[in-house]
């Protein structure tokens, strides 16, 4: 029994050692920001997304997760980022809580980027 464990360990050791030098790949994500950083009825907001690491994006879409919010296409902002503007409807009732803005898209190389931002409403 002891010999079997030793043999298994001896066979597994080179496999484990080969993983020790492996470096994780660069994480692809969209860094989101929102101006103004609040959700109130009647306010025009802009959600911006910037790819990290920097990449040329083919397209970006996203939404602010409040009831009835559509998925919006982002437009290039001319500085390597993407953005969309929308108005929170004046008649909207936004209950206190935590809301999420999400965005996703593909680079021109076909790599997927995603990101999110949380907004607290008091």
Mean pLDDT: 83
CATH architecture: Sandwich
- Low confidence ranges: 13-25
Tally of strands: 8
For the record, the CATH class is Mainly Beta
- Rg on CA atoms, Å: 22 Å
Strand arrangement, largest sheet? 1-2-6-5
Question: Could you name the CATH homologous superfamily?
Answer: Macroglobulin (MG2) domain
Largest beta-sheet characterization: 4 strands, antiparallel
Query: Do you know the CATH topology?
Result: Immunoglobulin-like
Give me the number of helical elements. Answer: 1
The helical percent reads: 10-25%
Whole-number tally of structural domains: 1
Q: Give the topology string: H per helix, E per strand.
A: HEEEEEEEE
Global shape: elongated
End-to-end distance:
63 Å
Beta content: over 45%
Overall structural class, as computed from helix and strand content, comes to alpha+beta
Q: What's the helix and strand layout?
A:
Layout: H1 2-20, E1 29-35, E2 44-52, E3 57-64, E4 72-73, E5 75-76, E6 82-87, E7 97-107, E8 112-121
Antiparallel strand pairs: 1-2, 2-6, 3-4, 3-7, 5-6, 7-8
Describe this structure in words.
This protein is α+β, with helices and mostly antiparallel strands. It has a single domain, classed as Sandwich (Immunoglobulin-like), CATH 2.60.40.1930. 16% of the residues lie in helices and 45% in strands. The protein has 1 helix and 8 strands; from the N terminus they run H-E-E-E-E-E-E-E-E. The chain has one helix spanning 2-20, and strands spanning 29-35, 44-52, 57-64, 72-73, 75-76, 82-87, 97-107, 112-121. A 4-stranded antiparallel sheet has the order 1-2-6-5, with no helix packed on it. Strands 4-3-7-8 form a 4-stranded antiparallel sheet, with no helix packed on it. Strand 3 and strand 4 (72-73) form a beta hairpin. The protein is elongated. The model is unreliable at 13-25 (pLDDT under 50).
